[in-house]
Amino acid sequence: MSEAFTYRTISELSSLLHKKETSSTELTELYLSRAEALAEKTNSYIKLTRAEALKAAAAADKTLKAGEAGPLCGVPLGVKDIICQDGVEITCGSKILKGYVPPYDATAVAKLKQAGAVILGRLNMDEFAMGSSTENSAFGPVHNPWDLEYVPGGSSGGSAAAVAAGEAPAALGSDTGGSIRQPAAFCGVVGLKPTYGRVSRYGLVAFASSLDQIGPLTQDVRDAALLLNCLAGHDRRDATSLAEKVPDFTAALTGELKGLRAGVLKLDGLSGVDPEVLVSFRQAVELLAGAGVEIKEIELPHLDYGLAAYYIIAPSEASSNLARYDGVQYGLRCQDTPDVVAMYKGTRGEGFGDEVKRRIMLGTYALSSGYYDAYYLSALKVRRLLKNDFDQVFSGLDVVLTPTTPTAAFKLGEKTQDPIGMYLADYFTVGANLAGLPGISVPCGFSKAGLPIGMQAVAPALREDLLFKLAYGYEQRTEWKDKHPSI
After folding, report:
1. Nearest alpha-carbon partner for 308 in 257, 374, 226
2. How does pLDDT run across 168-182, given as a tens digit for each residue?
């Protein structure tokens, strides 16, 4: 792929397209070629949809020629393989959906198509979005472009790795407990989880319905704002979709930081946070303070219980949502079984991977008679307490700042036999999902091993503008967005 386009942002590509300095067809071919060339290294894509992409690119070129195009027209993007695309097989990183082709577009995909964006293909992921490393995919693990021996994070690891490696200028992911922000931090890109209900979940295959949210992974903060402009809005087909006015999020990208009030989570004595992460995070906070952000140290008293609550609520909802995969109507079906019960058992036994089985069993147990009150109901109470913590903090502050993850990326295979250790990677991110709040991760440094480190900002519900204002102001005062892997 031409170096002239490898790490161009959506804004830059759109400018080139509108100036007729390139075409959507040329860009699409270039990104498809790069993805094919890096396939064995990163394994970012499950499938490239070459024919569909080139057809969409040709249509975009006609629109551009007519002078009727918006900022996304003709721009190639990738989509996580948990978001439905009409006529293209969806797998959710699992064997159990083999052969299933959705007859409709997810609302998020439909909006991208209406804006003239070109979808390059389906991005790899942890099976049914259950994981923090993208090692749980039936299609093999994704490799971090900064060092191929390390994980890219999860579950949107394919989306983050593709953007970091220049295999797509941006991508869609989904975030249930940090699955956009955590891989964004591990891969050195920007990842945004919008307010729950800000972006329609129609066509997003459900993991945990009260937590799931679609969002963008991008090269920079401006691109995240551009994509949210396209994706946000009420959708009558999603009962949880919010009927709220959608502002122009790019209006928040002023670069001005004075007047913002940020709460910094007290980290002293917190075990499990790598010293290198602490150093980078504290340097970022110092920079923000020097630029005029009012900094106040805060506590979220119930955050320590958030991870435990999340790993009761999410598996409980998963055990209900994934009950539909039984081999009867679509997907994999176990053959040559003596009766329907054996077929159910065989299909689910063959079709689901170990992590999905683990979470289904955990959720089913938590919901079972005699344990519902002790586990699930208690977890819901903790969720409410954590939401109260955020409400109290936001009564006097605009954003809360934390490291995105306790560590930089870890090696492939390092935590596959340690589920609890893997789950701890979500310590800082699950709170925003449990409380339904928007969160963003931006690069804020590197470890001694040369792996990216991320800073997370969380804002009150429907205040993504505050996230964009702070993240853009920070980004413009640093050089992190200009650093890319040498893959």
Report:
1. 374
2. 999 999 999 999 999
